[in-house]
Every structure is written in C-alpha cells, then in structure tokens.
Design brief:
The chain has about 700 residues and is mainly alpha-helical. Helix content is about 50%, strand content about 5%. It contains 24 helices and nine strands.
Length: about 700
C-alpha cells in the first residue's frame, strides 16, 4: 500500500500498477516523454541521446526451493524490479539455449551457464542497470535457474528496452561477456515471441574496463568503452557496486518464501534507486567539476600531439577511425585497426602450442613441452624477484621484508612444482658431481640494473660449509639449458634440448617485441610530454612515466639476455645467434633517430639491430615507429573524444534531471487538483507534499544547470 501511495496509485484516473510501476528510476538518463525537451529529435547531435545499459549476474542472491510452493502468495508480482513470473516462465519454455564453450578466454559465466545446483530454486539473479548513474532498471531483474544463461539475460535486456525508449535509436550495451553474448543477439530476439527490440535500434556492444582486460587482447579494441562514441567516461562496472550492497541481505532472503524474497529484494533495490534520485544533483555537480581540469589536461596533451605530427597522417588516421566505427555494428573486427598492425615472429605460446601437438610424434612424453615452458616462466619470475630484491633500500621496512618473504614463498611453491616433475623427463643420478654445483643461479640480470648494487639491500645467499642457502630466486631450475649441451648429449636428451631451444626463440621474440614497444613509448613520451612540459609539475609527472617505462624495459632486457644465454648453452647454431644478437646497454638508449627519424642530421645515424630485424620479412625501424605513433594518436584521440563527450553529457544530464523533477512535480500537482472532495483530503495533502519535494529538487537542478550554462 505504501509503495502504491508513493507512486500515485489510488488517485482518480490511476489504474492498477503495471510491470515496474512501483519503482523509482534514474532522473538523468534520457527518457522521451519524461525528461527530454520537446525539440530533442531535431537536435543534430543525436549521439548525446544514446541510452546506456549494463548487465551482470549475481550468484550470491540464491534461493532455496520451497517445501510447500502452493502456500506462496504473490502480493505485487512484476510491479517492482523482479520480473513477472508468468511471462518469464513462458519465455524460458520456448527459448533455445545453445551449450557452448567460450571462444574467448575461459569465462566462468559462459562455461558454467548450464550448471545446475541441487535444492536451489534460483542460483542467482541477473539485472540491467544504467551504467552512468547506477540505477536498477524496473522490471528487468531475473532469476537464474541454472547458471548465467543467455535466455535469462535476453529477457532482462528486452524488458529494459521497453522502458521509456520511444524514438531512441541508439543503445550502448555493456556486459562482461559481450564478445560471446552479442554474437547471435538479434537472432534470439527474432525467434522468441516474448522478446522485443525496435527494428532499427543500433546496439553498440562493450565490456567493462575491468573485465575487458581478462579477455583476449583483441577484445580491448573491439569492446572497451574507451573506443565507443557516445559513452563518455564510463567504466561499465557499476553493477558490481550495486551487488555489494544487495548481498548484505542475500543471506536473509535465501530461505524465504519465493514471493517474500522478491518483495524484499524489490524494496532494497527501490531504496537504492531512491537514494540515487534524491542525490543525483550533488553527484552530477561533483562529476562536472572533476571533469573540467581533466578536459583541460587532455586537450593540451592532444593538441601538442597534433602539432608534432604530419597533418596528412592525422587526416589518414582520422578516416581510418571513422570507417572502423561505421563498420563495427556489422563486423566488430573492423576495430582491429586500433591495434598495432605488425607481423610478429612466433611467440613462445605459439611455439608451445605447435610443439605440444607434435609431442608423441617425436617420442616425447605428454606434458614435456608444458614442463619446459613452466620452467622458463619460473626463471622469468626469478629474474623479476631478484630485481625487486636489489631495488630495496639498504634498510628495508618491516612491511617490505614481509612482502619479500611472501613473494619468496609463492615463488618457492612454483619452483617445487617444477622440480617435482623433473624425474619424468630427465634422469640424473644423485651422485653425479657435474650437477651438484648447479643448485645456485648467479645469472639474474644485475647488469641491467639502474642503480649500483652497493646502494641497495641485497640479500645474497650466505655460504654454509661451502654450500649456498637456496633462496627461491637463486635456485637453478632443472632444464636442458641449465645442464649444458654436452651434458644433454651424455644424458641422451637431445630431443628435449631441441624443444627448449625452440621455446627460447619464442621467448626472445616476445621480449624483443616488448622492448621495441617500451622504447617506442619512451620516445613518444620524450616527444609529446618531456619537450612540451611548461611547468615543473608536468615535467615531474612526465619523468615519472618515463621511469615506469624504464623499469619495464630493464625487466625485458634481463629476460632476453637470459634467453640468449640459454640458447648458447643449448648449442644454438651460429646463424641463430647472429639473428638474436647480444643486447647491450647502448641498444636501449632512445636516440633522436628513434624519437624523430626525419630530423636533420640523422642520415648517418644507425638504429639498434632489433629495429630492423627481419621478422617475417617486414619490419623497418621507421615504419614501425610510424605505426606506434598511429596507435598512440588513435588512443589519445579516443580519450580526448570521451572526455569532451563526458563534458557535454553532464551538461545535458543536468538539464534532463531538472526536467525530470519538474515533470514529477507537475504530475503530483495534477493529482492534488483531482482530489477536490473532502473524503480525499489525505490524498490531496500527500500529493502537495510530494509536489513540494520534487519542486525543491528541480530548483536545485535548475541552479546547477545555470551554473554550467554560464561556463563555470
């Protein structure tokens, strides 16, 4: 009764509530007929009226099966956020669910979509919310019967599309597994009589900024909100914050009756939306003021980049961007032009996959290649930890010592796991003296450190009775390269050594690629940040970025040196060692030839050997750098566009919020005027109170709107 009163039911002319009618919704999202000005359809910038939706599942809100379902009585079925029972179950009966494994990374939501759990009526809930303001969509929260299946989320999305969407032609849909969910989305909607989508609706699919980094690399360019026009500065993860609040009551609702559970969840979600609504003006003011200095910084940086680039190149890159954005709706792979387009030599992962397929053909045990690759990864982790140890001050703090201890424990676990399997692949006698002195690895890349060893805390292993105390980062990992070429022949493991040599080639290819990226990034920072900095603050921040790149560069240099020394130990041919040359300190300097290869005086200047390495016959230093600048410009342009969009969106959202509150106030005034008889005096008083409340909120929004219109 209280919900019906708060939403205007019980007044003359108000019928019974329909789906989602007993809920509050976002005041700032564009809603025709509610908060948009009458002339909005004539606005040339229709991108600003894009509706945003974010979907996600929550497996903490599970529900046990009722012992006596016949005793369940629904008081407000479908009038809140949880969908109506009858139509939802009818949809599930006719919906076709294709059981499939994820073609991207191993996403739990996809692979466990059909997982059933005993004694549970609902394994969780799925919801749709507005991604910019964090309000649940009315009548769009569904129960999961098994896992997070597409048929469940389809119904949630369909209900969201039916909420104040008249004449809106564009939608941004953010979902953690959109690379899988969106493949046959329109087909599923077409085949179901219970799903509805406007025919000409343009749906741009995206993945939240946190989850997209757990996908394949290609998904970042295809689905990141950073590259979606009209998205503004949105992270696409706001439902995670909503779940954290809702989960506080999920334990209590687990054993409730079905209808009681839905009513409790409805009330908590409605309370969340109510708080969002009455606090929307301060939230928008905070966002608007925070975006102003960001827009200034991004604009300055972008203009400096444009000034230093060839106008013809910028024109070509702009055409590329616009064409990719046009094609993404029919083929999301068009966004791949936003990534570096260079042919890479086979990576270690590529070689590992190829060798694994041929293990049994070459007389090797299954798991041999995985064991070798595991050992190489452990060595990389040792190099990284040893560099961290050397970077500690002479007198590290207690927290630093505890952190180091925990890192060593984790690394030792990986070392033990690798060494525990060595007997399957290499048989070494316990009394073999040639191998007893190989328990300490002294090649940990100290030559690439930026500081002198005497200036840092270095927990070098002590000697006890001629033996070294084995620290995790200094334990020699058992591999053919550790034993050496001659020892491998004596042990008759030449096949194993040959496979490791191939993996080391992939490791070298990976690290050289990362070294080129780091040097390109460094030169890019020098050209666009260091040189253009006009204040000490900007210089300090720019040099901080350079130092961060340097640390990454040193790590890859250490790993490459380790890989090449392993090649030598494995008896690599002279031709191979000439291809993968020794890396020197001077090779990693960012000279003017890298930063600006066309500058006067660079004709006789040569670049490091790895810039012109023949990688599949196509890699010139200058061409690679041009590609690097193209990618950095595209990313900078995308961020520049999103920040400016955020500024425009916030100004419009403040206006829409004002119109929304005025609309609500006028609706309550009309209800008050309809209650003229004395027996409706209570109705009239309550309507007047509601009208005054929304009028006060409208005045607050109006003041903020005037503030933004004055350019403040």
């Amino acid at each position: 009764m209280k919900d019906m009163m708060r939403h205007g039911f019980g007044y003359p002319g108000r019928a019974r509530p329909g789906p989602g009618d007993l809920t509050f919704f976002c005041a700032a999202c564009p809603q025709p007929g509610v908060n948009l000005p009458p002339e909005w359809k004539e606005d040339e910038n229709q991108l600003i009226y894009t509706r945003g939706f974010m979907m996600d599942g929550n497996f903490s809100a599970e529900h046990l099966k009722m012992r006596r379902p016949a005793n369940d009585v629904a008081i407000s079925d479908g009038t809140g956020f949880m969908v109506g029972e009858g139509r939802y179950k009818a949809h599930l009966k006719v919906a076709k669910e294709v059981k499939s494994k994820s073609s991207c990374n191993n996403h739990k939501a996809v692979n466990l979509a059909n997982a059933d759990r005993h004694k549970l009526e609902a394994t969780g809930i799925g919801a749709t919310a507005c991604p910019r303001h964090g309000c649940f969509l009315p009548h769009a929260v569904v129960d999961f019967q098994k896992g997070e299946r597409q048929m469940n989320m389809d119904y949630s999305f369909s209900q969201a599309l039916g909420r104040n969407m008249e004449n809106i032609q564009r939608v941004i849909l953010l979902y953690d597994i959109n690379c899988q969910y969106g493949v046959h989305l329109r087909q599923r909607f077409t085949e179901s009589p219970y799903l509805h989508m406007p025919r000409r609706l343009e749906i741009v699919q995206g993945i939240g900024l946190f989850h997209v980094h757990g996908h394949q690399d290609a998904c970042f360019m295809r689905y990141s909100p950073t590259f979606i026009p009209g998205a503004g500065l949105v992270d696409g993860e706001i439902l995670e914050t909503l779940w954290s609040s809702l989960n506080k009551v999920s334990g209590s609702t687990r054993g409730m009756a079905t209808s009681h559970r839905k009513e409790v969840l409805n009330r908590h979600m409605n309370d969340w939306n109510w708080k969002k609504m009455i606090n929307i003006v301060p939230a928008l003011r905070k966002k608007y003021t925070a975006n102003l200095p960001l827009m200034e910084d991004v604009t300055t940086s972008y203009n400096a980049m444009v000034a230093s680039a060839d106008p013809e190149m910028i024109q070509a890159w702009t055409v590329q961007m616009e064409e990719a954005q046009r094609k993404r709706l029919t083929d999301v792979k068009a966004m791949d032009v936003f990534d570096i387009r260079t042919d890479r030599a086979p990576s270690r992962a590529d070689i590992q996959l190829s060798l694994t397929d041929k293990e049994t053909q070459h007389g090797l045990q299954r798991g041999t290649i995985a064991w070798l690759s595991q050992g190489i990864k452990v060595q990389e982790a040792q190099v990284s930890l040893a560099a961290h140890v050397r970077s500690l001050p002479k007198s590290p703090t207690t927290e630093q010592k505890i952190d180091l201890l925990n890192r060593r424990k984790r690394l030792q676990t990986r070392v033990d796991a690798h060494e525990g399997k060595k007997a399957r692949y290499i048989v070494i006698e316990d009394n073999d003296e040639d191998d007893n002195d190989k328990d300490v690895d002294d090649d940990l890349g100290e030559e690439w450190d930026a500081v002198e060893p005497d200036d840092v805390f270095w927990a070098a292993p002590a000697r006890v009775s001629g033996n070294a105390i084995r620290l995790a980062e200094r334990v020699a990992i058992t591999l053919p390269s550790t034993l050496g070429h001659a020892r491998c022949e004596a042990l008759n493991i030449q096949q194993l050594a040959a496979r490791e040599l191939k993996l080391r080639e992939g490791q070298a290819n990976d690290t050289l690629h990362q070294i080129r990226i780091c040097l390109g990034q460094k030169s890019f920072l020098f050209r666009t940040s260091i040189r253009s900095a006009r204040s000490q603050h900007n210089k300090t921040r720019a040099w901080g970025d350079v130092n961060a790149v340097d640390r990454t560069l040193q790590h890859h240099a250490r790993v490459y040196s380790k890989a090449r020394k392993a090649m030598v130990s494995l008896g690599a041919s002279e031709a191979l060692l000439n291809h993968y040359k020794v890396l020197r300190q001077e090779d990693l300097k960012v000279s003017t030839a890298v930063a600006d290869p066309n500058m006067r005086g660079q004709r006789a200047t040569t670049m490091a050997w790895f810039w012109t390495m023949d990688i599949r016959g196509d890699a010139e230093g200058q061409a690679w750098m041009e590609e690097f600048y193209r990618i950095n410009w595209i990313k900078a342009k995308s961020r520049y566009d999103r920040v400016r969009e955020e500024h425009d969106l916030l100004k419009h959202e403040i206006l829409w919020t004002n119109i929304f509150f005025v609309h609500q106030s006028e609706a309550w005034i009309n209800r008050m005027r309809a209650c003229l008889s004395d027996d409706l005096a209570g109705h009239r008083a309550f309507a007047g109170k509601q009208a005054d409340m929304f009028k006060a909120l409208a005045d607050e929004a109006s003041a903020l709107h005037k503030f933004t219109m004055n350019g403040q």
